[in-house]
Amino acid sequence: MTRTIVITGASDGIGAAAARRLHADGHRVVVVGRNPEKTARVAAELGARHFVADFSRLEDVRRLAADLSAVLPRIDVLANNAGGLFEEPAVTADGFERSFQVNHLAPYLLTRLLLGRLVAARGSVVWTSSKAARLWGRVDVERFADPQASGRYRPLQAYGSAKLASLLVMSELQRRYGAQGLSTVAFHPGVAASSLGSAGDGLVGRFYRSPLRGVLASPERGGEHLAALAAGEAGTDWEPAAYYENGRPARRRPAALGDEALARTVWERSEELLSAVVD
């Protein structure tokens, strides 16, 4: 079945690789990226629609959702693939720590704004996650939006915590809307040689720009995992609300994923934070 699939973070790396694979398989791909030139280039290659949005600005996310709803009568799959690993702390114009907003709050907002289209299509939401959610992710509900709450910004912990928050939202989304036909799934694409952490001047950035990046998996490999989930059937090809690694349900997943009360609290807290700047 041909699907209309929106992929964020698709101007390069895993997102672009997935877009190429899905296009080759006959699906209608919509490319979303932060960089106008790179996003347009990928879209032109595929003959696809494209939109530009910077997830560090929630107004961009609102505009993106409105533009997608205006031109797409149906959305079968939303692939929340955009993200970033930031070595230095920063506060966005919306007042949130940047890693938290880009990796959790912005994709949550986009999903919420497109829920009508997705539910109507009995569609699916695919979340590009990370093993960092299990290794370094922490959810402190009292200091939910502040990765610097301990007094020190740790890039991997901030990134992992935001990814863990999105995993919890993924499971709560399934609980709330699964009966209406919506399905959700998340996956770790492998540590890929993408542009994820290449911009910083610290240890992570220097590693991603060094010859050592050759030991990392290719973006194409991660893109294949994303494409398989986006094109697959929930309940047949993958299990709803599951977390995958290497194309299979993860043998070790974040322990917090089994906490339904925490997932519900993270959903509600995300709503509260957005209500102050969006509604």
TrEMBL record:
<dbReference type="InterPro" id="IPR020904">
    <property type="entry name" value="Sc_DH/Rdtase_CS"/>
</dbReference>
<comment type="similarity">
    <text>Belongs to the short-chain dehydrogenases/reductases (SDR) family.</text>
</comment>
<dbReference type="InterPro" id="IPR002347">
    <property type="entry name" value="SDR_fam"/>
</dbReference>
<dbReference type="GO" id="GO:0016491">
    <property type="term" value="F:oxidoreductase activity"/>
</dbReference>
<protein>
    <submittedName>
        <fullName>Short-chain dehydrogenase</fullName>
    </submittedName>
</protein>
<keyword id="KW-0560">Oxidoreductase</keyword>
<dbReference type="Pfam" id="PF00106">
    <property type="entry name" value="adh_short"/>
</dbReference>
<dbReference type="InterPro" id="IPR036291">
    <property type="entry name" value="NAD(P)-bd_dom_sf"/>
</dbReference>
